[in-house]
Structure formats: C-alpha cells, structure tokens
Amino acid sequence: MSDILASDRIYTENERALLTRLCDLMIPASEDRPSAADPELFKDILLRLSTHESVLKPALASLATLALDKLAASEQVALINQHREAYPLFFQIFESQVIQAYYANSVVLTSLGVNAPSPYPGGYDVEETDWSLLDPVKGRAPFYRVLESGE
Amino acid sequence: MSNEPVDVLIIGAGASGAAVAWSLADTRMKILCLEQGDWVNPANYPSAGPGYETRQDFAIRPNDRQLDVDYPIDDDESPVKVVNFNGVGGGTILYMAHFPRFHPSDFRTRTLDGVGEDWPIDYATLEPYFAENDRMMGVAGLAGDPGCPPKAIQLPPVPLGKLGERIAGGFNELGWHWWPSESAIATEPYDGRDRCLNLGPCSSGCAQGAKASTDITYWPYAIRAGVELRTRCRVREITVDKKGMATGVIYYDENGIEHEQKAAVVIVACNGVGTPRLLLNSVSTAFPDGIANGSGLVGKNLMLHAMAVVQGQFDSRIDGFMGPIGCALWSKEFYETDPLRTFKRGYTMEIVRGSGPSGTALNGMMMGRLPWGSEHHAAFDQLFDKAGSICAVGEDLAEEHNTVTLDPAAVDSNGIPAVKISYTLGENSQKMIEHAGERAKEVFNAAGAIATSPTISSGVSSGHSMGTARMGTDPNRSVVNEWGRSHEVKNLFVVDSSVFVTSAGVNPTSTLQAVSLYIADSMKKRLATLFD
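Predict the joint structure of the above. Result:
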C-alpha cells in the first residue's frame, strides 16, 4: 500500500472535499501558479495532513456545517476565519502544511525563478561584488582600540 | 570496544574538542575522544533535498530536534534560546561560519571600562593560535579592515550579493564602517574542501562541504595522527580518586550500556552549557557541589550575547536567499566603548540573508502578512526575495545570576539530569539593544528599504554560550587557571567557551578555538610538570 493510498483512507470523501475547497480558498490559481487544490499538490498536502487527523477532524466537522456554496470566495474565507479562535491548532497545521507543499512544488518554484527544489547540488550564481564600494572605508585609519601594551 | 586506560580523554568532538585533539596528537600520547552524537553524513543535510527550509532534524535548537543524542534544555525563562548540535563537529555543523576574532579590548574590559573582569591572557598571547586556527579552518575575507587588528586571510571574500551591496551602500551613505565578513567558508577549493556554491542555509549544515565544520577540518588530521574518536558515547560523570584527582569517566554507549574509562588527563569540551552540566553532574565525596566547583562559579556568569535583529524590506528582488546566510559583511562602527553612549562596550552589526520560498511564506503567514485568497500571490511576491536582516551581536556582561543549573525534573535518554537556563538581559544590554536596533533601521533606510521591522531581541536564538567555567588566577573567582586547568583538580582541563571571561560583541567560534589551541600548547609545554 502506498503512502498516498494510506493517507486517502484517513479522511472521508466529504472531509477530502472540504480540504480541497480550503486549499483552493487559501491559495487559488493565478496566471502562472497553480491552485493549492491542484490534484498533484493536493496529494502531497493530504499526505502531510495524514498524521494530524486528531486535530483536523473536529475542526473539519465544524467547518462542514457552514453553508459555503452560494458565497463568493472572499465571503467563504471570512466565514472560515471566524473559526480561528475555536480551532487555532487546526489553522496552524493546515496552513503550515499547505505552504510547505505548495512552495516546494516545481511548477511554483519555476514561476518564482527558483529552478530546483533544493539548493544542492546546483547552487546559485551570485554576481561578483564590485569592491570599489569599499573605497570610502579603506581610507579610514584603524579605529579598533589599541591598548597601552601596543596590542 | 576497549576501555583500556588512555593518557588523555577528551569529552566532546565539537569546535574545541577537535582543535585540542589535533594539537595534542603530536605528543604521541594515547588520546581518546568520547562524543555523545554521531558522525553526520553531508548527504543528509536538508539543503540536499526538498523541504530543506522546514526539516526539524537539523533544527538549530535541540528542543526542536528532539533527537536521542540531544539533552533537554529548559530555556523557557530565557529571552535568548539556546542553540547547539551534538555530533562530530558539534556546533560547527550548524553555525553560520561567521568568523570574527575577539578584539584586544575584549580581554581588558575591567581595566578599560570598569565592567566585567579582565582575562588572565590577552590578544597578543592568542594571536598565533588565531592564525593557526584560521589556517586549519580556512578563512575567507579581505585583509586591511580598519576595525580590527591586521591578520592573514586565506581565501577571497564571500560575495555580497545584491542584498549586501544595497546595505553596504547604506553604510557608505551614513559614513559608517563596514567590511566583508571573515567567514570560515571555502570560497575557492581549500585543503580538500570544494568551493562554496552559495546554497544559502549554512545553519542546517553544508551539503557541499565548503563550510569549515570540524568533522571535515580538524578531525581527519587528528584521526590520521592516531587520536581515537568514539561516537554515541555519552559521559555521565567524571570520576575522582581519594586525592581529588580525576581518574576518568563513566559513560553510556549507544545501547545504554555503562562503561568506565580510565584516563590520566581529562579534558572537557562540551560548550558553555554542556560543560557545566557535566561538571555539576560529577558529584563525589570530595566534590559534593560538582567537580572543580570550589569557587561555586560552575554554571554561573552565563553569557549568550545581547542580540538585536531588524528586518528590512526592499522593493525589488535582491537574491537574498542565495549565498551563505550569515556571511556577507559586518560593521564595527559601534564595537568599542564610546563615553557618549549610555552603555559600556559595544556590538557588531552583521547581515543575515533572506529566506527561500517556504521560509518566506511561513514567516509571512505567521506575521499575518500573507492572506488567503486572490491576494495571496501578490502579497507573497512583495515578501519573497526582498528582505534581509541586520543582526547586532552585542557584548553581554557576566552576571552571576545568569546560570546553567541541573534540571530537577528532566533527564536525557540515558537518565542523566538535563539543564535549566536562567538568564536575563541586564540594563547595559537593554540599552545596547535599543541603540543597535535604531542604528540598524538607519542603515536600512539609507540603503533604500521601504520598511523595517521593530527590533527583535526576545525569542532569538544563540549558540554563543560562554562564561560558565571562567578562567582566572584567583581560585575564588574562577574555575580554571590561566591555561585551562581546574584550580582544584590538577589533571582536569576545560577548553571550550565556558572559560571565557567576557563575551565580546562577536561570534565566539574563532576565539574559542584559538583558546583551545593555546591551552593544548600550554599543556604540551608543561608535560613534565603538568600536575604540579
């Protein structure tokens, strides 16, 4: 059994649908970046959330009672935010895991001009420094404290 | 595993333990080092894989890592949180490799400024050991800094990047000193290490091996010279005989099995928190308050540095996540005491580069600056790669009420009592932090930043633990003498930053390693009379 299948079974179909909606509300698609509810991204998010079911499920049950369908996205977010006080840990975990998945996604990273999911082995080219910047400082006499012993 | 008696037993394989092992190796004595952690495989460092900004197994705080090789540190009551790493290389595995030396004035604060205590040694005494250590570690920088004594530099400086150049321009605008940081980073191939690739997160380990951690600098030489390094061996206590001499240690191996290791000389190199912990845990009839604690100063006078951090926001991308995160430039403009200021001593300003995508987003969300919904992307673009920080590292004065004590409740995975940190920032430090924060904001403003954060001084992390087994000539006012030997136990030495008398306003690794080499050399010069 793969991890993804295992994580699929932790949350019910309705819970997964609600999590998908929350992901899309948190980070919707833009011209060059996918929604956090993009299927590939959501698989990763679901896997990350699979170890937090005891925290997430009660909050999801509460959020499931909200009538979101007929509301505009901004109104849905406002309504969901009213639950932050009651479920602070839910929001902390959910947002943290969505961000970690989203900003490690290759499509997202490419759109940000970051061409690899990790700095190593490629590294980065940092432009050579123009050390003439130091000229004003080079003209300064030594100013560290010289002791009587001559140090 | 043989527990045959050895001539020298070193406890801890970090910055100081490695240096002292290498230096003593040429005596041909039988030398053993016990390290509670493991060797680290650079391929496992976070920067070698996805999720590198959020992995906790290389988090700088042991309380976040929660590995069985770590020991709990209760620093809940301290505004400065303790950072360390337990493994071969110790703190150098996760340090930023910022490598300034203490200044000559740092050894004479009582004489010069009427605060703290004077060291029993001075800069001139340590200078050859600074130089030797620089050669072993490989230091990048630029000679000629008017803010520091002259020195030889091995490697070209770390590039400033766009962020560094913007901030350097700010310093120039104000007419203030700045200089490329001295950094223990191979900017060109050096002594078997390949050049820096500007990966960024040096503080979670260098996957390239360009950063000078002692597992890849000192240790290969020390082991080749015959030193035995035994990992996953956690020392519980230093044992003594009826004459009050150290006889060796009791330690646990990785399976939790207890061993006794005899030694003629015991050297403690466990840093400013681990060293007092071990000394205080080494209780006997001869030393009911902990070994070497006749002065009552073991664990006292803890110094962690007064830190002031200000973040600046720019309106364009600055390549802030590229390049060694803690090494770009420093400013010594406010390092030395100025009688016109309201505080004594001073601080170094250092640049800390920005975060990558995940780090930026997590921080933005935490600060309430990254909303849900259609505005998310625009808000993220305003934050990403447009921020950097100035961190002022300020000298905090030794105060006896700042302590490392044994925790009455918590123990490590071997049942050895853990530690509790009691630490407050003194009035001098508070004034220094306020001053430094305002100066950092001026620099950002002069550099064209569009916004600056409030000064952050509480909740910051520091691996700069110093002063908890200070050196001195008076046995009533110090734990070890002027060459690192316990006043009371003539074959027990301390070689790490615990022996520091003052904290200076710089990162301590260069100086603590110089002190280690100096103590090792002092021992070698006195081999025939070492216990007199």
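The mean pLDDT of chain A is 92.
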